[in-house]
Design goal:
Elements: E1 11-13, H1 16-23, H2 30-54, E2 57-62, E3 64-66, E4 73-75, E5 79-84, H3 87-96, E6 114-119, E7 124-128, H4 132-144, H5 147-172, H6 176-223, H7 229-239, H8 253-298, H9 303-306
Antiparallel strand pairs: 1-7, 2-5, 2-6, 3-4, 6-7
Helix pairs in contact: 3-4, 3-5, 5-6, 6-8
Length: about 325
């Protein structure tokens, strides 16, 4: 998964009071300061409650502008981009999904706008200003433009938040037997996710290998009469050293095709087996999540935690 920004990208402050003072330091900004404080106060209770369960960072975006004639600042409200492990990850997931946010107004200024990063685990409040805001935006766009990567980032971040919530649930459990049960579920969920990720990685490798073999078979059909069978066999053996097809191939094009198809069938059988194995672990994860739903509901956990249906990992095909 993509990593977080370099520390110098985020300017950390002591608390929200320091943040507000830093953003609106002069008396002329008092109206904007009041609006920002009011908007932030409305958001904080739910954001703080959710973070107490998920432990995830929250990214807020504040579009700003400035009148070129009077230098007066314009404030466009606070947009909650979401929660996750890093600002770039959150931006990537946010931009990869349909949004109902209004377009930036004509007075919008990229240089004056900024992100606010709330990091509950480290008890930090940070601001990402231009040009660093441009850096995290570009990193986020790279994620958003790769749909599979965006889905993977979202899946991993959501699961990390869920695991944190399971830990919190165990702490909140009054009965020791229930606490042990929740802790056991946490271990199963974590171990199962590791298995799912490992299978998905191997599955992706074999699916790509299967596609390349199909492409090579098409190449034989197209170039079979123009290129020697020995040269094609040597090329295939170098691309797929585990195929056991010798580089010094003694046979015609049809025999080579049959050998390659046999190897492709082996890969196909592996894929079928891995998909079955993956399904088993995904169901196991879902079963553990179902067991915890009632407890999460009783403790008024955030809706996204109560509705979590198990970890499925990255979609590979």
């Amino acid at each position: 998964m993509p990593g977080g920004p370099k520390p110098e990208v985020i300017k950390f402050l002591e608390d929200l009071g320091d943040l507000i003072g830093y953003l609106f330091p002069v008396v002329a900004d008092s109206i904007l300061k009041s609006k920002f404080e009011t908007d932030l106060e409305k958001l904080l209770p739910s954001l703080t409650e959710d973070a107490s369960w998920t432990g995830a960072g929250t990214l807020l975006y504040v579009p700003m502008g400035q009148d070129p004639g009077t230098s007066a600042l314009f404030y466009g409200g606070i947009r909650v981009y979401g929660t996750g492990s890093t600002p770039s990850n959150i931006i990537g997931v946010y931009l990869s999904e349909p949004q109902i946010s209004p377009p930036n107004p004509i007075w919008f200024s990229e240089e004056k706008s900024f992100y606010v990063w709330l990091d509950p685990k480290n008890k930090k409040v940070g601001i990402i200003e231009y040009p660093f805001s441009k850096i995290v935006l570009l990193d986020g766009l790279a994620i958003a433009n790769d749909k599979l990567l965006a889905k993977a980032v979202k899946a991993h971040d959501e699961f990390a938040q869920y695991l944190n919530a399971v830990e919190v649930l165990a702490i909140k459990a009054e009965e020791s037997s229930l606490k042990l049960e929740i802790q056991a579920a946490h271990k199963v969920l974590k171990d199962t996710a590791a298995k799912i990720d490992a299978i998905n990685a191997e599955l992706a490798t074999n699916l790509e290998k299967e596609r390349k073999i199909s492409s090579f078979l098409q190449k034989i059909k197209i170039l079979g009469a123009l290129v020697s069978v020995g040269q094609l066999a040597l090329e295939f053996a170098s691309q797929f050293p585990d195929s056991e097809i010798p580089g010094m191939f003694d046979g015609d094009a049809i025999l080579l095709e049959n050998e390659i198809n046999s190897y492709k069938q082996e890969i196909g059988d592996k894929i079928i087996y891995m998909k079955g194995e993956l399904s088993v672990y995904q169901k196991l994860s879902a079963q553990e999540a179902i067991k915890l739903k009632t407890q999460f509901s009783l403790k008024n956990a955030p809706k996204q935690i109560q509705h979590f249906d198990g970890y499925s990992g990255e979609k590979t095909d």
